[in-house]
Amino acid sequence: MQEKIQNLKSNLDENITDIKIKDMPEYNLELVSGVENTSATEEKILSEVTENAEITCKVFTIKVDGKEKAYVKNKSEAEKIIKEIKENTKSDLKIKLEIEEQEKNNKEINEEKTDSQIAKLDVNAEVQEKVKKYEKKQIAARAAENRRKKAEQEKKTQSSSTGQKGASAKVTSKGMFMRPISGGTLTSPYGKRKSGFHTGIDLSSKIGTPIYAAASGTVIFAGGNPRKSYGLYIKIDHGNGYQTLYAHCSKLYVSEGQKVSKGENIGAVGSTGNSTGPHVHFEIKYKGNRQNPQNYI
Fold first, then answer.
1. How many domains does the chain have?
2. Does any domain span residue 270?
3. Residue 93, Cβ neighbours under 10 Å: how many?
4. At what angle do helices 75-88 and 116-161 cross, to 10 degrees?
5. How far apart are CA 205 and CA 182, in angstroms?
6. Are 119 and 27 members of one domain?
7. Residue 295 · residue 285 · CB < 8 Å
8. Which of 97, 153, 173, 278 is 20 to 30 A from 211 (CA-CA)?
């Protein structure tokens, strides 16, 4: 019986690193008539020893930005969980996921806590909550930037409209609309080309470059199919028969029915739809007829 108690560690989980028995149960082995009764008595003694033992286990702790979130029994499980979460998390936010080998009391770590599926759910929930908060801050920052640009544009407009008393500004089509992106290269003008008639102009720039509303108006469409035609695109009605279109976007920051101001960030340059590279395809329509944008910006 004493030998079985001494070999208790080898009969338990391989992750166990140490066993300290605080209170050894008192027992006397006596001759009994049945072998089965002897076995039952030994099992009871071993059970009491296990219940009174301080058992230390080796676990692999998964940390999210330094905070312990889950435990698993082997390193390969922890690495697999981190790899899957990184692959499925699409965000610019940098989150530190790390593994640390630790020793913990067995009473702190039950089977549920070391289950790999539960561990993955716990870690993923923490990561997604961080991403959600980050995206919320990004949206607020973009909104603040749009308000700043709007105030700046209004200030410029007010400044340019002040002049001699009684004078009125001369309005022409040139300059009616602002350029939809800052900088960029004109890669395809309006008009005939080998593949057919080009209904707008193409301005190339890197993916993510802000796209601005060419004039104030109301968004009448924001969406599309990333794999077809214009890809993701936006249409704005400016009143007086004018409409503009911004195609092949990577991101859309506005929705249908939304009021936008001239110079407001409405999307980001991309290469969605029928596109050979990152650019914005920009169109202007007047009373349903496409116009050459270069005559207006």
1. 2
2. yes
3. 14
4. 30
5. 9
6. yes
7. no
8. 173
Q: How far is CA 89 from the centre of its chain?
A: 5
Contact 222, 251 (CB under 8 A): no
CA triple 87-222-152, angle to 5 deg:
100
What are the mean pLDDT values of the chain's consecutive 10-residue runs (297 residues total)?
A: 54 59 54 50 66 77 90 88 89 89 74 75 90 90 89 68 36 72 92 89 95 96 92 96 96 96 95 94 95 92
Q: Which range of residues forms the domain containing residue 216?
A: 185-295
Please check whether residue 20 is in contact with residue 53, taking contact to mean a CB–CB distance below 8 angstroms: yes
Residue 169 maps to a domain: no
Instruction: Give the CATH number, domain containing residue 206.
Output: 2.70.70.10
Per-residue burial over 18-51, b if 16 or more Cβ lie within 10 Å, else e, is: eeeeeeeeeeeeeeeeeeeeeeebeeebbeebbe
pTM above 0.85, yes or no: no
- The separation between CA 159 and the C-alpha centre of its own chain, rounded to angstroms, equals 42
- One domain, residues 141 and 191: no
Query: H helices then E strands: how many in the chain?
Result: 5, 16
